[in-house]
Amino acid sequence: MTLSLFEDELPIELINSDGMITCWQLLLPDQEATALFEELLNVNNWQQETITLYGKRLLQPRLTAWYGEYGVSADGGYEKLVQTVDFTPRLMVLKTEIERLTGYHFNCVLANLYRDGQDSVGYHADDEKILGINPVIASYSLGATRRFLLKHNSDKLQKVACELQHNSLILMHGALQHYWQHSIPKTQRSVAPRINLTFRLIKPH
Ligand SMILES: O=C(O)CCC(=O)C(=O)O
Ligand SMILES: [Fe+2]
């Protein structure tokens, strides 16, 4: 008999109309999650990418790094494939566990490092053509808890807020990216660093 390292917890549905968000808590054994956080925090492949908004080149208010088969430049219309770094053994364990839990396959990860409360990501949808028609994105959090906000594109009354905790996973799937936008807002609270790993399947055409 093989014993699983991971305890299966029933997932929670955060959104189930116009797309879906499914959430799992405590994904990895505690020491594994802490070791992965420290490993990622201490590597030196973090970059501060630029993004062009209304014709102006701005620095993104967070650091990013791509792992896996492909990466996509934020300032290249999200189409350009950039060189990436191989999955580390710890990232591989996490990817395998996420694939087992969700039943989906992923070939790359965009890692985001929010250094403090001033780092953020504005409202957006992960709807780049390169991710296919209904992108499936598994988003795993490590480190400080940050607030995740969602708003519906046409029904302004529909808003969802959720605290993304260390060692938790959300799966964005179905038509979600067509109907909802998501963000991590800045906070005046003093917060420690947070790393978010967004597992994606890039299908170059
Ligand atoms: O940090 C997060 O939880 C969200 C990151 C995100 O939305 C993205 O990388 O597209
Ligand atoms: Fe996103």
UniProtKB/TrEMBL annotation:
This is Alkylated DNA repair protein. Residues 105-203 form the Fe2OG dioxygenase domain. Gene3D superfamilies: Alpha-ketoglutarate-dependent dioxygenase AlkB-like. It holds the Pfam family 2OG-FeII_Oxy_2. PANTHER family: ALPHA-KETOGLUTARATE-DEPENDENT DIOXYGENASE ALKB HOMOLOG 3 (PTHR31212:SF4). SUPFAM superfamilies: Clavaminate synthase-like.
